[in-house]
Amino acid sequence: IRQAMAGSLQAIHTHKMSTNAYDNLAKKVHSAVGQIVAQCKLPPAADAQLHLVIADLLVGADQMAGKVKGAPRVDGAVKVIGALKAYGQHFDDAGFQPIEH
């Protein structure tokens, strides 16, 4: 998810992301979240924290896909980036780098 979002950051910031590009990015987030949920084997406390991150990822993906009436697609991208930041703050993942923007 981080890689897909980072790769789209320039277009998001310059408001040059097409509707199709937002749809594709939302599909990538949804797919990755599905894989995360399927493979999750965390202890209960960590799992609960991960579910908060996942909820924001899914809300953001739905906004990027245009599924939230009145919510600009760019706001969905911001929500996903915020969820990634929260992930980095709550989980000790040595390989994870938050997106600087």
Describe the structure.
The protein has 4 helices and no strands. With 101 residues, it is mainly α. Helix 3 runs antiparallel to helix 4. The protein is globular and about 40 Å long. The two termini are 16 Å apart. The relative contact order is 0.18. The model has no long low-confidence stretch (mean pLDDT 95).
Task: Draw up the topology in text.
Layout: H1 2-13, H2 19-39, H3 44-64, H4 73-90
List the keywords.
4 helices, 0% strand, mainly alpha, globular, 101 residues
Number of helices: 4
- Spatial gap, N to C terminus: 16 Å
* Proportion in β-strands: under 5%
Q: Give the overall pLDDT as a whole number.
A: 95
Largest sheet: none
Task: Please give the radius of gyration in angstroms.
Answer: 13 Å
Beta strand count: 0
Q: Classify the helix fraction into a percent range.
A: over 70%
Order of helices and strands: HHHH
SS class: mainly alpha
Shape: globular
Which ranges are low-confidence, i.e. pLDDT below 50, for 5 or more consecutive residues?
A: none
Summarize the structure.
The protein is mainly α and 101 residues long.
